User: Fold this.
Amino acid sequence: MVTGGSRGIGLAAARALGESGASVILAARSAEMLERAQAELKVAHIDAAYSACDLRNTDGIADWFSASVEQFGQPDILVNAAGIQRRGLATELSLSDWNDVQAVNTTAVFELSRCFARGLIGLQRKGKVINIASVMTAAARRGVSAYTASKGAVGQLTKALAIDWAPQGILVNAIAPGYVATELNEPLMADPAFDQWVKKRCPLGRWATPDEIAWPVVFLASSAADFITGQIIYVDGGWLSTF
Assistant:
C-alpha cells in the first residue's frame, strides 16, 4: 500500500515496487487521479488497485483501512508517501494550515502505520513500513515551520515505531529526500532564484527525480534490508554533508 500514490514520489515508489514484483494498492484523496495512476501502471503490466481516502480526516483512517483490507487483503508493505505543504512565516501561518499539515504528514502516518501493524500482528506476519521524511527532518529553512515540524516528527516516529514493533518483525524505516522535482515543488522550481539556489546548494548540483527516491524505498522493502530498522536514510545529493 502506497499513500500519496497518485503522483510524485508515491507513484514512483508504486511503479518501482511493481516492477520488482509487488502488487500495489494506491491511496490518495482524488479518485480521478488514482484512476489515472492505476491506468499508467497497468500499461507497464503492474498489478495496481486503488482506494481513495482523505487523510486529513484522521478519525476515519481506521475504518477506511479495514475496508481496504477486506477488499484487497492485508498488505505486507506500507509506504507513507502522502504529504502536504503550507508555506508562510510562523507569525503569519493560520492555525488551520498548521493543523492540516500535522494531520496529513504526521498523525495520518501514525494512525495508518498502527492499523497496518495491528493487522500483521493479528495474522502473525512480518512486514515493512517505509515513511517518506525529508531533508527537513534534520534541517530547516525560513517559511516552512509546519512542514519542518511534521517531518521532524516523522523521523522520531519512525524510530519509536521501530522499537515498539521489532519483537513482531515489523521493520520501520524512513527515506528523507532532498529537493525533488515533483508537483508539490512546482512553485519552487518555477522560481528562477529558488531553482538556482537549490542547484548551487546541492553538491550534486540538481533536483532529484522521483525515481531516485523510489528505488531506495524498494531496497528497504526487500529482504536486503531485513536487519535495518529505525533508520532515516537521507537521499539528498549530499545536502546535509556540507554548508
Q: What stands out?
A: The chain has one domain: 2-235. Strands lie at 2-3, 24-28, 48-52, 77-80, 127-132, 170-177, 232-235. The chain is about 45% helix and 15% strand.
